[in-house]
Design a protein that fits this description.
The protein has 358 residues and is an alpha+beta fold. It is built from 11 helices and 12 strands.
Length: 358
């Protein structure tokens, strides 16, 4: 096709943070703020992003490798392009057409440019792979799209759970458990991309969930930015000699998340809120034991104000900034919570769950 345009949603964690990195369950929502990628046929390879509007890059192929003509900050985009083209070649499609790849994002504040914590690196990985595949006539299932995105980020050496990739690939609300790194890493060196994508990945769980109609989902942004990679590195350093503490936390979180998944399956709003509160308790206890700065004063204020109005609230994602969430069984109190957040300097985000992808 001469031109393809895709929009991929950002994500927010409802529960299961930190434990998900060690193979525990998490519940993650795709939200209706999007990153858009446009792929259009051109005579020469080009890349442009609205994140650096004055930077226009050129790229070419050399021995099936994507090569840029200068240093650039888009290594994640480059490796996503590379993995996609490797996959296409494995399928018998040999990309030869050059294209301009353009990226625009809603996943940050339009005024300041600060990130909301909605998973922009995950969304751009998924969007680039999906757009290039469609450009060459390949429509990928959400699972294949997720697996290719994981391979791209793994080849770049990124750590984490890849939960943002699952949410952005599948849309909607999902229960998620990461694949086993000890299985995946050797396979990357042994298998072609297509063969590896076709395999069942041990421990991987991606299950669609339905959010109860009688429950309202609120999101507040603290106006400060957290670094997930930095916080995960801090946890790894602080827990190196505290492995039992970490294992106990993962075990407790898994039990909590299994109960929460069951509550979603049963559409039991009271049980969901109860487990949200319990997951917050587990995260706070773990953070205190390992010296992790999880709930900033702004996040604690966000949570306390929501709880005062009867909502179940907690941090979302790595903590240390970014967003907090609140689940509310009495929708008429939503405006009261949001007004109290605004008075405390917290910005309510008008976010809904993004529709699931087929």
């Amino acid at each position: 096709m001469s031109k393809i345009q895709v929009k991929i949603p950002g994500k927010l964690y409802l529960a299961g943070e930190y434990a998900v990195v060690d193979g525990g369950l998490a519940i993650i929502a795709a939200v209706n703020q999007y990153l858009q990628v446009t792929v259009e046929a051109t005579q020469t390879g080009q890349l442009h992003s609205d994140q650096q509007a004055d930077l226009n890059l050129s790229w070419y192929r050399k021995d099936h490798n994507i090569v840029f003509d200068q240093e650039h900050p888009y290594s994640l985009v480059q490796v996503a392009m590379q993995v996609t083209e490797e996959y296409l070649r494995d399928l018998g499609e040999f990309p030869s057409t050059y294209y301009r790849l353009a990226i625009t994002s809603e996943l940050d504040d339009s005024g300041s440019g600060q990130k909301y914590g909605l998973g922009s690196s995950g969304a751009v990985t998924v969007a680039v792979i999906k757009a290039i595949s469609l450009f060459y006539g390949q429509s990928l299932s959400p699972l294949v799209l997720y697996k290719l995105s994981v391979l791209a980020q793994t080849k770049l050496g990124l750590s984490g759970s890849f939960g943002d990739l699952a949410a952005s690939s599948f849309g909607g609300l999902i229960a998620y458990q990461r694949p086993l790194p000890a299985w995946l890493l050797p396979k990357i060196a042994e298998q072609t991309v297509a063969d590896l994508v076709a395999l069942d990945w041990p421990n991987l769980v991606i299950e669609r969930l339905l959010f109860p109609e009688n429950l309202q989902f609120l999101v507040g942004w603290t106006r400060s930015v957290a670094s997930t990679e930095g916080l995960l590195d801090e946890v790894a350093r602080n827990t190196f000699h505290k492995k039992q503490i970490r294992q106990d936390f993962v075990t407790a979180s898994q039990a909590c998340l299994e109960r929460m998944v069951q509550a979603f399956q049963e559409q039991n709003s009271s049980a969901i809120c109860q487990e949200i509160r319990h997951n917050r308790f587990l995260l706070r206890s773990y953070a205190e034991q390992v010296g992790l700065h999880l709930e900033t004063p702004a996040l604690k204020t966000l949570i306390d104000l929501a709880e005062e109005h009867g909502a179940a609230a907690k941090t979302s994602g790595a903590g240390g900034g970014d967003c907090g969430i609140a689940l509310l069984k009495e929708p008429f109190k939503a405006a009261q919570i949001q007004d109290s957040w605004v008075a405390a300097g917290i910005l309510p985000l008008d976010l809904l769950f993004a529709p699931p992808f087929a």
